[in-house]
Every structure is written in structure tokens, then in C-alpha cells.
Amino acid sequence: MPGLYFVSDVHLGLQEPLAERQKLDRLEVLFSTIRSQGGELYLVGDILDYWMEYRLVIPKGFTRFICMLSELARSGIRVTYLAGNHDFYLGRYFDDELGVRTLYGLQEVRHDGKLFLVAHGDGLGEGDHGYKFFARFVRNRFNLGLLTGFHPDLATALMKKFSTLSRHHKPIDTKAEPKRLIEYATALAREQVFDYFVCGHNHAARMETVSESGSTYVNLGTWIEGQYPYGVYENGQFQIRKV
Asked: Which of 43, 63, 191, 198 is deepest in the core (most CB within 10 A)?
């Protein structure tokens, strides 16, 4: 059976031009691998460091990525984009123009007889009330209407500012795995049987069994530090690899 691929927290648009080109080059290699091997791709949030959709305008800076994504979808690969905390509002552009399905929140994915629970990871579990309020504020239809009513240059500048606020708000330690998402996956495993809980968000790649039945927590890590990790399930095994 073709593989199931996952990638998260690329944060395109965040870093200096050389780092951005390197990330895009590695994404191109990964997409080529998926096309040649066959399979399905889940973009598990924060692929872009900021995104705001307009009715008639496409934000500058992501042209190469959009072309690569469109080519992958047109080649017959099913691509799903789960919104992260930096993907403020994905709208209909990815669905209608690129053929990429966009979803929000925790999703159930069944593949090869396995149940995958997939989410970016923002806002899950106890606490983090400040971020939960922030997400409701940014994705509120009235506030979205106000933002898209601004000139695109001004609205994009605001999105970049919100992106910075979101990053600074999270108490992320990239040297040690934060406990919140592991605790969430562990609690979830007490309520339902699943094989893999796949997330990103805290930038700490890790795989850990969280139940006696073998439910496994998978964090996909980040591309910010030049490691380029991705997850793949194939031949009955889940691995975190690097491009």
C-alpha cells in the first residue's frame, strides 16, 4: 500500500532568503519522492509562517511553494492541509485553485487498517487559555472581514505581527519535549483506541508509546533548524525521516 506522509512547521516566510530556498529545495525533493512512490500527504499546520486569504489577491512570497503544491495535487496525490496557529485563515483558495483539501482541528484518518489522529497541536488539552482566545479572535468571521477590508500590504503586515505574537506566546523549549501534547495524547488513549497521534506545533520531534495497547505519540518536529524532518507510515511502520 502507498505511504502516508506528514510534514509540519516548515514556517515558510520566516527566515532569511538562503534558509527559505533550502526549505523549498527540500520540499521539492519530498514532493518528488511522494509522486514517484505514490501515497497521500498531510501538511500538519504552520507550513506557512503567516497566511491571510483575500477575495482577489494572493499574498506575495509563496509563489514557488504554491506552484509545487499545485503540481503535486495535479499529479494525483491527495493533499490535506490542516491549519496551524500561523495559518490564521486558509479560506477556499487551496481547495478551489490548488485541489488541496483544508481542514481545522483534530482529524481521524484511517489507512491500512490503522487509525491516525492528526492535528497541528495548538489549543489542545488543558490550559493555554490565552492562545485559545487569540485563535478565536483571529478566526472570527467579523474580524476576518475587517482584516481583509484593509489594503493587502497593511493586512499582511498585521498577519506577520500576529505570527510573531503567536510564536512569542508559546512556552516552547526546543531542547526538551513539552509535556502538554504528550499528556493530551495519553489522556486521549484512555478514552479511545488509536494507533498514532500525529502532531507538530512544539517543534520537538519525538515518538513515544502512550498506552498499554500501543498507541503512539508522534511529533513531527520543525524545519526552522535545518533538519527537514517528515513522518511516513509504510509497510506497517511509522518513521520520522529527514529529507
From this structure: 198
Residues pairing with 89 in the sheet: 52
The answer to whether 79 and 94 have CB atoms below 8 angstroms apart is: no
Cell numbers found for residue 69 = 503544491
Bridge partners of 4? 40, 233
- Parse the chain into domains and list their residue ranges: 3-171+220-242
More confident site: 149 or 79: 79
Summarize pLDDT for 174-203 with one digit per residue, the tens: 444 468 899 999 999 999 999 999 999 989
For residue 40, give the H/E element and its range.
Answer: strand 39-43
User: What is the model's pTM?
Assistant: 0.85
Percent helix, strand, coil in the chain (nearest 5)? 35, 25, 40
58, 154 in Cβ contact below 8 A?
no
